[in-house]
Write the structure tokens for this entry.
Amino acid sequence: MTGPRLGVLSSGKGSNLSNLLQRGYHIAAVATNRPSCGAAATARQHLVPLGEFSQKRFGSSLARDRTLAAWLERIGVDMVVNAGYDRILGEPMTSAFAGRMLNIHPSLLPSFGGGMDAVQRALEHGVKITGCTVHLVTEAVDAGPILVQAAVPVLPGDDQDRLLARIQAEEHRILPEGIDLLWARLGGAAQPAKETTHA
Ligand code: GRF
């Protein structure tokens, strides 16, 4: 495989992870804080190394993120893809993967950022167009530089499930685009696996 070695972070059903696997991306690691989630099951099924980083294992979110970053660095991922991870990533992660960590968010940022309820808030607000955004992760939540966006019209009679299904169809198109775009910008330079860090 010639593309980037991806580390995917997820807490949820994992449709974006499944889409990347189906498209042949090299998933070098999956990390989750919810070992019973769909994404974790998908990782096990595909024999992808799975890191289980439940918050209860750690004294603080800083300790959790230090361990997570060290694990991903030891595996030698080139890029981190935050695909439905429901924890805010702190400095150990934003520093270790600065400029090579993406997030997919189910709204047209900067609208409806900063939470897990972006689709519900868009419906409540009565917007006629929403969508999804692939952006770089920085310490400011949902505010890093935007790489790709897709617009999705809100249709009469939409509820959260119907709108989210159409948004996710677009996510499955633009997340790979964002990965390819960032990998091209990085010059396709692989990061060597580090031998000495222990989780
Ligand atoms: C996606 O809608 C993404 O925008 C949001 O979390 C959801 C993850 O979905 N950040 P899935 O687990 O990949 O299906």
Summary: Residues 195-199 have pLDDT under 50 and may be disordered. The first helix runs from residue 15 to 22. The pocket of 5-O-phosphono-beta-D-ribofuranosylamine is lined by residues 10, 12-16, 39, 83-84, 104-106, 132, 168, 171 (CB under 6 Å). Residues 157 and 163 are 10 Å apart (CA to CA).
